[in-house]
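Translate sequence into structure tokens.
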Amino acid sequence: MDDFQGRVEANTSVGPGYYFMKIGLARPLGAVEPGQFVMVRLPSADYFLRRPFSIYGYGQKWLSILYRVSGGGTEYLSGLKKGQQLAVLGPLGKGFEVPKGRTPVIISGGIGIAGIHLLWQGLKRKAVCFFGCSTEKELCLIEDPAQDGVVCSTLDGSFGFNGNVVQLLESRLPQIPPPLQIFACGPEAMYKALRSLLDSQRIPCQVLLEERMACGLGLCFGCVRKTSDESEPYKRVCLEAPVFDLWQISL
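Result follows.
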């Protein structure tokens, strides 16, 4: 798989430490599954390895990412200006699968909205989206927190439900018509809480895992996670995922 040559079309701050980037591509990206990602090569010799980012949005010759500044690479990325060039490898990985006959429920924690946004767009009038963050200042990650089908929580109680997003889901779960299919993207602590909440009913749940990646192609085995697959327990997040069945991964 070859890199796509890209050009920054927009790179704007959407909130404290959060940025939205739109990248124009020299050729069409092709088909994309919600939950897939790209590896971005930064235009600097100081950053040799590509950085993985979930595909937030895309069109025939463009894609967008939503990211948080969390280190030197993303700090550099946030300073790129319109017209600067970079390279993109993708789409990569295994995305979400939407089964028929189940009520879809989307759970997002903070910047996890970036990994689940495409799925939310595709299911817009058929799913409830539960979004949780620390404070109302992070509601910038949601296009419209008050839109129909979105229910928000903040840890400090500054907007919506006072608590974390799994507690919010627990309070609303009896009102959602079964059978359910849950899709989630967020921190690992959120997945552990989800597993505890859903365990008694064993509700199907797909989760998107984030791991440090070197190649994104499954060659280096640097992003392996243990699963319950007895024949081949260790799976590469970049190749066999990043979307896993919650009940098959070790947390």
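Note: The chain has two domains: 4-92, 103-248.
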